[in-house]
Amino acid sequence: MQKNIEFIDKLRSSGLRPTKQRLKICEVLFNREETFHFTIKDLVKKISDNLNEKISLATVYNTVHAFKDKGYLKEISINSDKSYFDTNITNHHHFFDEDTNQLIDCEDDYIENINIKKNITGKKINSVEVLIKVASDNQNQN
Length: 142
Known about the structure:
This protein has helices at 2-13, 20-30, 40-51, 57-70, and strands spanning 37-38, 74-79, 82-86, 93-97, 102-106, 131-134. By secondary structure, the protein is an alpha+beta fold. It folds into two domains: 2-84, Arc Repressor Mutant, subunit A (Orthogonal Bundle); 91-140, no CATH class. Strand 2 (74-79) and strand 3 (82-86) form a beta hairpin. Helix 1 packs across helix 2 (20-30) and helix 3 (40-51) crosses helix 4.
């Protein structure tokens, strides 16, 4: 019951009515121990498969973007047409496995100090987050 109250608060603070479908979205996103990386399509499939619920793509899209705008989710752009969302909203780095299309957290101690030598005039750096794209090394396969 406590989780439902938290979900309702998240929805309302994001400007959304706490409908049954949106509460299901919250359950998948926020009722977990580990970070969850997902695309909108991944989330629709997970809701459909795990909860046996049908929720429109538009509802999922609008809910996820409202949560992102409120700061409950972080968006990580992989390229111009692919974005992932992350339930871990702290500043951190990622690996992106191009073979499996999986986004994986990268611990800070895996990356040495990053030295930014130039800034954009009139702007300040808010954070530095590295995206490391990886793929199979076909040279080492027999």
